[in-house]
Each structure stands twice: as structure tokens, then as C-alpha cells.
Specification:
- There is one protein chain.
- This protein is mainly α.
- The protein has one domain: Arc Repressor Mutant, subunit A, CATH 1.10.10.10.
- The protein has 6 helices and 2 strands.
- It has helices at about 10-30, 40-50, 55-60, 65-80, 95-120, 125-140; strands spanning about 80-85, 90-95.
- It has a two-stranded antiparallel ribbon with strand order 1-2.
- The radius of gyration is 17 Å and the shape is globular.
């Protein structure tokens, strides 16, 4: 079935979702060494890189809704990776030692994911596809 074409292959919706499923599977395999799903790993990277980051900033970086980010933060707080501090009307998110200790392994998994799809697509093609997909998502969300 590898060389067969779906009758939906010319549909952006279908093709984008097919690509997302393949990349999600790859990401889950690469991030398995961390014990985290990719979305949790990216959350920890954001907080490790900027302790005291606000959920709204995480939402923008990860391109997720505020409610989804809140749910992810709560889960990671419960597991001992993050802590929230309330400063006036603002919430700030900080990494714990447990999160900091996992940071190197998370970045290695991310690099391995990049290498894996770059080896299959070609590095230049992967970068172009990434850039075009990002631009399209920003344009379509308007």
C-alpha cells in the first residue's frame, strides 16, 4: 500500500492529518525515552527554558488553547515536574528539580525526532515543509 494513492490525497485536510498521524507516531517513539508524551515534553522545555513563564505565553508558543495548557500544567504539577505560583492576578509556572533533570533527555529526544524525519525527507525538504506548514496554519487561523 506504500505506493498507492488515496482518493483524498489532493485534499489538504486529509493530507495534513495523515502527516500529523505519522509525525505523532514518530514523536511518541522518540520521546518514549523520557517517559512523557511529546506534548508534555514540549511543555517542560518551555518552562525549563523560561522559569516563571505564564500559561498565556505557553499557549502562544505551543499553539494550544489556554484550557489545554492549563490541563497539561496541572498534570505535570501533579506528577512533580512543575509548580505554579500565583502573583497577584498572574500565574507563573516554574520547573522543579525533577523537570530540570529530564531536560537534557527531552532535548535529545527532540533532536532525534528531527534527525529521523530529516533522514527520510531530506533536511532541506523537512525545513521547507515545516516552514510552509507553519505559515499555512497561521494564515488559515485568521
Amino acid at each position: 500500500m506504500e505506493h498507492e494513492h488515496s482518493k483524498y490525497c489532493h485534499c489538504l485536510y486529509y493530507s495534513a492529518n495523515a502527516l500529523a498521524r505519522v509525525l505523532t507516531k514518530m514523536a511518541e517513539e522518540e520521546f518514549a525515552v523520557t517517559g512523557l508524551a511529546p506534548s508534555y515534553a514540549f511543555l517542560l522545555m518551555a518552562v525549563n527554558d523560561e522559569p516563571g513563564i505564564q500559561p498565556k505565553q505557553i499557549s502562544a508558543q505551543m499553539q494550544l488553547t489556554a484550557s489545554t495548557v492549563t490541563r497539561l500544567i496541572e498534570k505535570m504539577e501533579h506528577r512533580g515536574f512543575l509548580e505554579r505560583k500565583f502573583v497577584g492576578k498572574f500565574t507563573k509556572v516554574y520547573p522543579t528539580i525533577k523537570s530540570r533533570k529530564l531536560d537534557k533527555k527531552i532535548h535529545e529526544a527532540w533532536a532525534n525526532l528531527y534527525k529521523r524525519y530529516s533522514d527520510l525527507l531530506g533536511e532541506a525538504k523537512g525545513r521547507t515543509l515545516t516552514g510552509e506548514a507553519y505559515k499555512a496554519s497561521k494564515k488559515l487561523e485568521m
